[in-house]
Specification:
With about 180 residues, this protein is mostly helical. The protein contains 7 helices and no strands. α1 crosses α2, α1 packs antiparallel against α3 and α4 packs antiparallel against α5. The longest helix has about 30 residues. The chain starts with 5 loop residues before the first helix and ends with a helix.
Length: about 180
Amino acid sequence: MTCFDRRDLGLLLLRAGAGGVLAAHGAQKLFGWFGGGGIEGTGQFMESVGYTPGKANATVAGLTEAGGGVLLALGLATPAAGAAAAGAMAGAAAVHAPNGFFAQSGGYEHPAFLGLTTIGLGIAGPGRISLDHALGHSVNRGWMVPVALAVTGAATALVVGARNKRARQVAEDGQG
C-alpha cells in the first residue's frame, strides 16, 4: 500500500482550489451560473473587449475554464488541463493589463495568479491522489508537458494577438 505524503496532499489542495475556481468561472460563461452572463452575455462582453466573434470566444473560454478546471481538480490529463487553463487566463490578463497589476484597480492580478498556478500544476504533475496516477499516467506523460505548452502558447499568442490588434485599431479610430 502506498502512503501519501504531504506533497501529494498539497498538490491535491492546489488542484482542487484552482480547478474549482476555474470550473466556476467557466460555468458562469457557459450556463450563467453564479451570476454569470451565460454564452449570450459573455459573448457580448467578449465582443466589447475585442474577442470576436463573441459567442465563439465565450464558448471556447467557458469550455477551457470549466473543462480545464474540472480536469485539474480530478488530476486527469494534467499537462493539457494546466496549459489550457493558463492559456485562458492569459487571454483574461490581456483584457485587464491596461488597468495595472492589482485586482482592486481592475488589473490582471487574479488571472495571472490562476494562470501561473495552473501552468505550475501542469508541469509538476498531479501527485498520487489523482486520476492520472490511478490510470497509470496514460494521459500524463513527460513528453505531453512541452507539447501542451507549445500548442497552447501558439494558440494563445494568435488569439490574444488578434484581440490586441483589434483593440489598437478601435483606439486609433476613436482618436482620429
